[in-house]
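Below: protein 1.
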Amino acid sequence: MIVLASTSPQRRAILEQLRIPFRVVAPSYDEVGDDPVEHAAGKARSVDAGTTPVLGVDTIVVLGGAALGKPATEAAARSMLERLSGRAHEVVSGLCLRTQEWEELGREVTGVTFRQLTAAEIDEYVAVGEWRGRAGGYAVQGFGASLVERIDGDYLNVVGLPAAMLLRVLANH
């Protein structure tokens, strides 16, 4: 059993898919800056679960060295998708798994390449609304899969949880 310090439905779905028993506790942590490892640690450290391991995760999209956050408006989502069109970018996740006795931190990077998108395709994607609350303005596990040409690395990392890393850390504890 672990405690997931996140309200993300994607992270819950991945843990269920992997058959890792968990319960959810919303973290009380304010994200400042762009370091996903720092944010993952802050989320995990904000939850006291005693001897039960607490999992904190944060994911960002990086294009040309610049972090793309979660777009606040349709116009911002459209702009992000235009920038990502036809280009490779990185999905970077920070992971923190901790108890009172130990803490493991890690960073996972997955390469994603978007195909060249037309203005009409971007407009259609933005109209669907899937971009809301998503780093980089897209969700690869949904209609956003139509935007992607290639993924190099952990697909579940792009969805929102670096599963291979989590499984390695759990196996060591």
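Below: protein 2.
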Amino acid sequence: MEPAGLRIALRIWVVLVLLLLFTPIVLIIVYAFGPSVVQTWPLRGFTWHWFAVAWNDPSVRQAFLLSVKVGVIAAVIALVLGSAVSYALHNFRLFGAEGISLLLVLPIALPGVITGVALNNFFGFTNITLGVLTIVIGHATFCIVIVYNNLIARLRRTPRTLGEASMDLGARGWQTQFYVMFPQIATALVAGGLLAFALSFDEVIVTVFTAGANFTLPLWIFGQLRLGQQLPEVNAVVTIVIVLTIIPVLLAARIAGAGAGALTARAAEVENAAPR
């Protein structure tokens, strides 16, 4: 058992790490409700004024709608392609499967600037005009990884005996997949889609190289910070982005946890029912 002093030191260390990570975020949210144009402490009051300013700003609304549009489309593409490749790698013996898995992870493992420059060069080489389509393609490259990792992990934990029992009872292949396997992986798909949307919604680096003249919400924030103007409005917009990013992440964690728990219970039932 660890000494009491070590436990106290570890708790203090955890608190310090959390403060380092979240204090800047908390300060941004606090300043978003301050009435002053200049950031001063302590706050001289409380106001929703800057949120109203952001809502009535056409550039903010346009950037927000574009971010949502790109995030939804990229998440859908990631769900289709990520689930297809994870299913193929898990259920079939493919030549170079390990290499394929490595290539799938590379877009999110590499620095975003490398992925962005590579995509920008590709679009320039193929004479594709930068716009919404190129942003979606850029975001889909790393969103696929999120869906793939979620689903392949769930498939590896799913007992193969479920599918075998279904086939033994006379179910066809599509019936086994739809009625037996799909309920086991549905929560992983939903969680992967939510995480993909959250990752796409606040992506900046790849978007810089693929957006052209279009502005997503993170790009609008980045541009305003460079100009050094409208800082209170920027704080309000950043607060909105933080909330809209945290919500799908929390939902994904809750859904994935519930699905994993149900899968564990189902696996135990199958194991207990198996003849010995």
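The first helix runs from residue 4 to 32.
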